[in-house]
Structure formats: C-alpha cells, structure tokens
Fold this sequence. Notes:
Layout: H1 2-6, E1 31-36, E2 47-52, E3 58-64, E4 76-80, E5 85-91, E6 100-105, E7 114-122, E8 132-135, E9 145-150, E10 155-160, E11 166-172, E12 174-175, E13 180-181, E14 186-191, H2 197-210
Antiparallel strand pairs: 1-2, 1-14, 2-3, 3-4, 4-5, 5-6, 6-7, 7-8, 8-9, 9-10, 10-11, 11-14, 12-13
Amino acid sequence: MIMSRVHPSLRKLNDDDDEEGPAATMRLSPSAWTVWxxxxxxxxxxxxxxxxxxxxxxxxxxxxxxxxxxxxxxxLLLMDGEGKALMALKPQIxxxxxKWSGFKCGDGLExxxxxxAFSMRRRSILNGCEQAEVxxxxxxxxxxxxxxxxxxxxxxxxxxxxxxxxxxxISRKKVKxxxxxxxxxxxxxxxxxxxxxxxxxxxxxxxxRIF
Length: 211
C-alpha cells in the first residue's frame, strides 16, 4: 500500500525488456526519479534512501543503521538497486563547513580500492546557509557544481559551477494529477540529459546530511 502511494507506476519488468538500465547517464530527455527518505530494508530504526526510476524500479539505495552523530558514524554507501556498492560518502570530522568526500568503490570496500570522486561543503560557514558547492578536482579552488534553494523544503536546484545551467532539480512530489502533495519524506528529482545520475544521487545524500 505504501509503495502505491510513493510511486503509482510501480510494475515488474520482464528480463528481456530493452529499456535502459536505472544508472544510464545519457538520455535524450530529462530523467525523472522518485526519492523516498527511507531505507529499502524496512526495519525499525533504519535511516537511508530508496530511489526509484520512472518505471518504479529500485535504482539506488542507502541503508544506514547507525544512530551516531553524522561526524562519527563513518562512511555511507550509495548502492545500486541490487545492493552493489557504487560510492562511499565520508564526512570530514570537525569540519567548519560540513565537508564530505565521495569515493568511487572499486573491486572492494577497502580504502585502497576507492578513487576520490568529489568533495562537497557548505558555501558559507553560517549555520543557516542552505547552499553547497562541489569540487570534482581536490586541488582546484573553483567549484564544479553549486546548489541553490532550500533542500529541507524540497525546493532546490543543482547547477554548474557558474550557476548558469541547471543540472538537476529537487521538488515536492505530487500525485493524483498534481492535486496532492506528499510529505517531505518523498520527493521528486529530475536530472538533465548527459548528467551522471550516480553522481547526482551522491550529492543528494550528502546534502541531506549537511542540511
């Protein structure tokens, strides 16, 4: 019953369906995703994300069982729908700007098998600042991406470093011909063509922890 509320178009696809996979990054039109701020492992006390593609398939997920403060809980794992680790997201302890780093997972979960992918932090040290900036090159002082809007209110955009081009947009989820708006635990994500969906999902998870 809950899933029918979150994603009404949920259906099982045949193995021979030639639809693109959930992590496909190159599309002719923007891709639409439904984000549920709830672990796919529906045990009491879990905290995470379940992210569904436009066909209602579980495409990405984050399962977290720690109740520790975000600075001491260790890395979070972004996984695909089957549970394969894609990226490890790790907070920097005692960071003034709530800095996090993302590492692509290789053949294992050990740090030696991880490759640095990006760093993300608040754009300002002010606690009320809702904007973040992303650095793909750890040695560069110029941001590759930036966010605008309020993530907590599910009204936010991820833009390029100059703030000119929208890469992805987060908004409240509406159902029943847009007449009903769901709560903050379920929201919509639209990613522009040619953008790495896995990377945007990692940004989203870090934004949730920062803000």
